[in-house]
Amino acid sequence: MQIYLPIAELPLNVLLVLGLGGLGGVLAGMFGIGGGFLITPMLIFMGVSPAVAVATSSCQIIASSVSGVLAHWQRNNVDVKMGLYLLVGGLLGAVVGVSLFTWLKSLGQIDLAISVIYVMFLGSVGALMAVESSRTILDKKHGRAVRYTEGMSLWAKRLSFLPFSTYFPRSDLTISGLMPVGVGLVAGIMVSVMGIGGGFIMIPAMIYLLGMPTSVVVGTSLFQIVFTTSAVTVLHAINTQTVDIVLALLLITGGVVGAQFGTKIATRLPAEKLRWMLAIMVLAICLKLALGLVLTPSELFTLDARG
Amino acid sequence: MKRIVPLILLMLVALPTHATARALIADLSPRVVDISHDFTGLDVLLYGVQNDPGAVAVVLRGPAKDVTLRKKERIAGIWVNTESVTFKDVPQLYITAESEPLQAINNEELLRALGVGLEYMQLTPEDPNEKKEVLEDFQQAYFRIMQHRSLYNEKPVPLSFWGETLFRSYLHFPKNLTAGWYTADVYLFTDGLLSHVQSFPIHVRKIGFEAWVYGLAQRHSVLYGIACVALAVSAGWTATRFFKRV
What we know:
A: mainly alpha; B: flat
């Protein structure tokens, strides 16, 4: 069953799009990430132009993040103050990201930049998580005391010379306000350049860099993502007219159903196993992208149509 | 009255001879392509009568756009875009049909000037000082990519003839079509010269809900953006409420 998408300007199979949204939803429910890093490249693979894929993904992420943040809100798992600091950085990052995107596009290096950033971030984040989570799994298995990772992190201590020291009650942390703003900034750049929520960058950064308690990390990151992706969606709609609402609503429909399954799976698995699975998946995508950079492509030329 | 009758008779005799004197008459059906939610591509029927001897060629061109092509090269083990060439006003669709191979027309300059046939088409570079070999390389790459997207045809569609003069063929509009004005030109070449040409505009347009959404996104982009966010937020909200009850 095909449906013609008014902005993407091509017909796509409805079930395929629903399935893709569903897969993103399962990931969102399991790991608290928007699934954008999976959906954007898959849409491009299905023939949607990168600009439409990036803008539409950001619209889809809003819905899954709203749905997720509500659940966490009810369990008091959102650090609103931290979220607002992250948001300030995120909005700045979104603006920086849009200009960065335009600049790289004019150089013709946007695809390369996206791949390299993905490989770098996914590689380091994935490796960090894989090491940490397997250590925790092994420790638990051998009955050893689990290393306490919460509280002030090593990085926060090293960076304690930074000004604007602020107390965050919900996370019970006193760190420089610049740190969450910085994390938000990097995530914001990711949103506008790559069409992802930035959760998979923010979540590890919040755990390992800011030292936030794991219980509030997902809710707080989702809280911030709702606002940055909303801003980015409106920016894309105004500047490039590339948000396809029909495509977004199909992805959202698949996503909300998938998220229910994802949440069920998540409640049955211990947190470190979930982190380990996410790490493996992140590393797999990283490897695929890295191969794409090195292997000889089947077509050496790329086409870029203008106005 | 008596004077008018012979006049009418004369006209009746003269009209058909006048009509058969036209070297070529062709038409397309439909001339308006409507894109709605169930659009998956469309075959447009081209039919006509060829009264004079010669070769018939049909070219269907989409709206023109500037395109930039980039070539990848391996630098330090990584494939990086290096050279790029921009071509001006390139048709976004190029489908041809012909009654016989164009080489038979034996007038390469004419075909080049008219831009009939992919092998005779010459794209205009933005930078006129670009080397010829480079341009040829990039032009071939452009054709290859567009053929891969079914927007340029790999081989001309054959025109099938019924008897000596009646011809027909289907021109395929692929599913990844952009809206706009297209033109179909039907040429008749006799003795290596262009003896007749007929042009048809074809309107490719979005209709119904698709047109409404597209129009809204183009003309009221701020409103559209906010509406998208509102829809997404309410979808997320509704989903949470719904699944909580279940």
